[in-house]
Amino acid sequence: MTVFFITGTDTDVGKTVVTSLFVSFMKSYGYHCAPFKPIQSGAVQRDGEWIAPDPEIYQLVTEHQEMKDLYAYLLEKPCSPHLAAAHEQVQFDFSFINNKVNKLEKAYDGVILEGAGGLYVPLIEDGYCMIDWMEELHVPTILVARAGVGTINHTVLSVEALVRRKIPIAGIIFNHLHEEEEGIVKDNIHMVEKLTKVPIIGTVPYRENILDVLADQDERQKCYADWEINVFREAFADESATIA
Ligand SMILES: Nc1ncnc2c1ncn2[C@@H]1O[C@H](COP(=O)(O)OP(=O)(O)OP(=O)(O)O)[C@@H](O)[C@H]1O
Ligand SMILES: C[C@H](N)[C@H](N)CCCCCC(=O)O
Ligand SMILES: [Mg+2]
């Protein structure tokens, strides 16, 4: 079964929103995919229960998975995973994570792994970063980038880092975190495509009520109206896109 990795040019660029939309987008083409957040920092306590913020948003689009099956590690401190883990004396066991992903691979057509923050986010205090793990996983990667001013530099740098590690890049999705000047967004997309030669999968519009949008099938569909399915079909056909 196919595993995709959703990374971003930064934290808070919209990886969770895109992961949730991606699950719905693939379902509209008949592919049942499971979202999964291997390492979640910034857990919140509600009614005495620890909640993983990103999987809580996934549940707006996936009614089949219980919260405990949507993540592997849940850490309280809202910071880099290496620091949040050190704060709680937690050591990540990557075979534990891989086993949870493998279980999902057997039950679904695809698994959508969401990273934490961007590429050079330390997972371990010795400096082992998200990109090092992604290099080991070697699965098709979707890069989520801001649509507005400042994105060209961040996106090209992220692509350069992925290419240097030979991490397969399925494509880039530009997310409107604010209302942007569309002429600038259009040129941002054009320049990133020119500088990176990486396929642009599509965009996500700014929606003030984005969580309500994610909870509504018709509204979700409007968000991925310009997404290119063939990019994903190719990745689904790639036998090596698995961590089994
Ligand atoms: N298209 C959008 N329109 C409006 N708000 C958005 C949009 N995309 C993301 N947001 C908001 O921006 C914030 C960050 O989005 P999100 O949580 O998806 O980022 P992230 O990259 O997953 O962050 P993290 O690194 O913590 O996982 C959230 O409050 C989210 O609701
Ligand atoms: C807490 C935050 N929302 C994410 N879960 C983790 C972001 C780590 C960013 C590390 C860094 O780039 O400085
Ligand atoms: Mg997220």
- For the biggest β-sheet, the strand order reads 5-2-6-1-7-8-9
Poorly predicted ranges: none
Helix content class: 40-55%
Q: Order of helices and strands, N to C? A: EHEEEHEHHEHEHEHEHHH
Strand content: 15-25%
**What separation lies between the terminal Cα atoms?**
9 Å
The distinct bound ligands, ions and cofactors come out as:
adenosine-5'-triphosphate, 7,8-diamino-nonanoic acid, magnesium ion
The figure for the number of domains is: 1
How many DSSP-defined strands? 9
Structure annotation, total helices = 10
CATH superfamily: P-loop containing nucleotide triphosphate hydrolases
Q: Quote the average pLDDT.
A: 96
> Any idea what the CATH architecture is?
3-Layer(aba) Sandwich
Structural class: alpha/beta
Using the alpha-carbon principal axes, give the shape: globular
Major sheet = 7 strands, parallel
Oligomer: single chain
CATH topology: Rossmann fold
What does this entry look like structurally?
Pathway: Cofactor biosynthesis; biotin biosynthesis; biotin from 7,8-diaminononanoate: step 1/2. It is found in: Cytoplasm. This is ATP-dependent dethiobiotin synthetase BioD. The chain has one domain: 3-Layer(aba) Sandwich (Rossmann fold). The protein is 40% helix and 20% strand. Strand 3 and strand 4 form a beta hairpin. The chain is α/β, with parallel strands linked by helices and 244 residues long. Magnesium ion binds next to helix 1.
